[in-house]
Amino acid sequence: MKYSIRRLRLPQDYPAIAELLGHAFSEPTTAENLALEDSKIPAHGNLSRDDQGRLTGHDRYRLVAVDDQDVPVAYGISWRAPWTAPGELNNLLIVSPDYRRQGAGQELYGRFEQWAYEVGASKINYEIREQSEDSLRFALARHYEIERHSFESVLELPGFDLERHLPALQRLTDQGLKVVTLADLPGEEAEARLYELYRETAFDIPGFSGDYFSRSEWRKWTLDLPGASPAQVFIALDGEMFAGVASLVHFEATSSMYHEYTAVRRAYRGKGIALALKIRTIQHALERGAAYMRTHNDSLNAPMLRINRDRLGFVAVPGMYKVVKRLPQGAQTPASV
């Protein structure tokens, strides 16, 4: 294959990138969604250093490999946000199945590693789908290491026995708690309290690193996501206290729901709140006529895996490996490409 590497040309490249992302993600995206996501991100980067000399700030570097008709056949991005852990860059690389093993992926990989050295990163992160054995071998051969494994699980909703699980919701009521939605609690104060619940519980998630979103950024990447809705954010209330939350994103194209976040405050754990919230989200999905639900769990998050798989019947499907490479500081060029 003859190909060349270039920067993105937007908006004309959006449809091709959306198609490529369909080979990496479980749910399809659209050119419109990609344009919306870009609108939330500053157009110009601002990288900096902390007092320990580690890379901070935000920026992104995006490239495509194109064929002789200038159609993107591979796409990659290297980025960091203000909340990314110091020193780190997060990368994504996708090659169309029809163009793999022809050098485009290796060329893009080399360009991104070169950029990492140029900006002084100390660690590169990639996520690789579990079933992509060639990609994993490629990374391991270039001195990446598997740092984490996240499991994906799917619950087929037709035939789900909701009645059998409703007592878990009653047990929550018996403890004096109730489940409401964010739509039931409109206003600035409720949203601020929900943000604090997210921020407090995020640091307990296995594998979480870096800082947490500012409130305005949190809103962009939770409540303002395509398919998100206040009516799909379920909150366990103990009086005025937000004790736990489970939120969903709706994918219209596949008539499915994704668990965007589930968490319970430490003081309320062990009371069946997470299970009750999950059941309430399933009830909502059934009411919406969704075909299935998906979720991801870190391999070390045993309590949530037990809820999803042992109690509710989610079925394991291939998940993701997080592979990382630590870069020697002071080097100017990649050690290997």
UniProtKB/TrEMBL annotation:
Stored Pfam families: Acetyltransf_1
N-acetyltransferase domain sequence ranges: 3-167, 180-330
GO molecular function: acyltransferase activity, transferring groups other than amino-acyl groups
The keyword Nucleotidyltransferase is annotated on this UniProt entry: no
Keywords: Transferase
Domain of life: Bacteria
Gene3D superfamilies in UniProt: 3.40.630.30
Alphabetical list of InterPro entries matching this protein: Acyl_CoA_acyltransferase, GNAT_dom
UniProt entry tagged with the keyword Calcium: no
The protein's name in its UniProt record: GCN5-like N-acetyltransferase
